[in-house]
Hints:
Elements: E1 7-12, E2 22-26, E3 29-32, H1 35-43, E4 48-53, H2 62-68, H3 79-82, H4 87-97
Antiparallel strand pairs: 1-3, 1-4, 2-3
Amino acid sequence: RDRPQIGSVLYSAAELPDTETVTEVIPGVGLTQHLDDLAHLASMPPPRLRLIIGYAGWSPGQLMEEFLRNDWLSAPIDSRLLFHEEPERAWEEGLRSLGVEPSTLATWNESDDVAN
């Protein structure tokens, strides 16, 4: 089955456009998948931006079932982690912000966890 080709742009701005194509995820942080928004951002780059390419999909009810099984960790949005200067470290720091030591997770295989 073909998967959709989707890209998302997460960015910070002093003022977000008042359009239906940009979702304000937290104050001052917008999310869009609209090509016109991408063209505008390219012409006037915001101070912080993440271009995310990929697709994840769930069947009806699947995501809720996963949350109810505690398959997901959830935490308040932290723009410092969204726009981390070292994106590869954001996951580790996000876990630690919840009191979880990454190396205690059975599937944690970060070989660069030597910095600690």
